[in-house]
User: Which sequence fits this backbone?
């Protein structure tokens, strides 16, 4: 995926779950923070300028975290909408977790001889960034609690 000239972009993934529940997962650079309501999840995403980026979405993570979907709950993608100002090269789903070194040949980008993948492309996992931020916030809260003296009347 690549953003065109630092302009606003949005991609919507529409899913259907058992019992006629529908959910829209949207990624965009116009969102400031993750938000959820009963029908949608909004995920902020900032892409590097003028660089192709592999965006990995942990759908099971988003569904269990926000939609309270059980791992065994069946779902399927109904539609995908790529809005203006972005270019998408490929979209794939997998039960396996990949990194830039383990990407299958069909999904990988070409490199010139002697070129390293990390020097030319980017890799982003939005939910992992959010989890890392939560860990830092939680750690800070714990440290603050420990440092406060306990006063009993």
Assistant:
């Amino acid at each position: 995926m690549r953003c065109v000239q630092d302009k606003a972009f949005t991609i919507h993934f529409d899913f259907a779950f058992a019992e006629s529940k529908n959910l829209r997962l949207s990624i965009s650079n116009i969102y400031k923070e993750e938000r959820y309501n009963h029908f949608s999840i909004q995920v902020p995403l900032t892409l590097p300028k003028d660089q192709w980026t592999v965006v990995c979405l942990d759908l099971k993570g988003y569904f269990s975290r926000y939609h309270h979907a059980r791992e065994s709950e069946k779902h399927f993608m109904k539609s995908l909408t790529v809005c203006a100002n972005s270019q998408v090269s490929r979209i794939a789903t997998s039960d396996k977790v990949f990194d830039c070194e383990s990407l299958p040949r069909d999904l990988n980008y070409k490199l010139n001889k002697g070129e390293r993948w990390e020097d030319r492309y980017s890799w982003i996992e939005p939910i992992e960034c959010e989890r890392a931020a939560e860990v830092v916030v939680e750690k800070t809260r714990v440290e603050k609690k420990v440092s406060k003296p306990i006063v009993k009347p």
Remarks:
- Confidence is low (pLDDT under 50) at residues 129-153.
- The longest strand covers residues 10-17.
- The two ends are 59 Å apart (CA to CA).
- Residues 63 and 69 are 5 Å apart (CA to CA).
